Amino acid sequence: MIKSMTGFGKNVIQLPTKKITVELKSLNSKNLDLNARIPSIYREKELELRNMIAKSLVRGKIDFGLYIEITGEETSTRVNEGVVNEYIKQLKGLSLPGVGSDQDVELLKMAVRMPDALKTERDEIDEKEYKAIKEAVKDALEEINKFRGSEGKALESDFTLRVNNITALLEEVKKIDPERMDQIRVRLEKAVSEIKENVDANRFEQELIYYLEKFDITEEKVRLANHLEYFITTLSSKESNGKKLGFISQEMGREINTMGSKANYAPMQQVVVQMKDELEKIKEQLLNVL
């Protein structure tokens, strides 16, 4: 079963004094590209959280956000009383326009805007809170993986349709092939007859066989059929392996291109173009497979 690299997961937990939101967004990428936005208090736990996410999501461009909203009365920001009092003292020594009877209030407003008027006390990590955050991350990962799985089912249906289309076109190629070889043979015989020279029949037949072998596409037909079968087998395997499917599609493209270059027959070349079109649609969608 394949998975898409596109997904979204979110989990919100409510603690007595805090609301914690975990968000995960994922897009397609060749490798793991994880961008994390975490409050500074949890920076020391960032590596552990990154490893959790990387182990679960494996690949993709991933945005991880951890947001903490204070809902209680406690706050880690305090007024730096000594600094504010010193600012007020200095401001009182100045002749400030617009400061009237409410002088103290106005000076206080100015003082709290000054540098270092407020200080943030560094909180210690609450282990119970961090355990709750890890559970929220697990739940968000479960949600994003469900999203990826449902997207993967849609992709799988599309791949199966495209592969079946290519298989049907390959059958059409097999039907056209004898007619194509006959047409090439007729063209060569006509070209030789127009030379109006005596030609050794045995030698001509040998050269004709050698020439026709260059246009033979039996091997390409067999290999393409095998690649199509292997693609479906890999598609239905337990693990999602987008890179492997990408390699198989490259091999399919190689066989289709070779058939096109050897065709030398308009009806077959038209069928090959249709096969290329179907394969191109497969390759586009494979960029989003995990």
Automatic annotation (TrEMBL):
Cofactor(s) it depends on: a divalent metal cation
Coiled coil: none
Domain Endoribonuclease YicC-like N-terminal: 2-156
UniProt keyword annotations, A-Z: Endonuclease, Hydrolase, Nuclease
GO molecular function: hydrolase activity; RNA endonuclease activity
Family annotation (InterPro entries): YicC-like_C, YicC-like_N, YicC/YloC-like
Residues annotated as domain Endoribonuclease YicC-like C-terminal: 173-289
Domain of life per record: Bacteria
Family recorded in the similarity comment: Belongs to the YicC/YloC family.
UniProt-recorded name of the protein: YicC family protein
Source organism of the structure: Leptobacterium flavescens
High-level lineage: Bacteria, Pseudomonadati, Bacteroidota, Flavobacteriia, Flavobacteriales
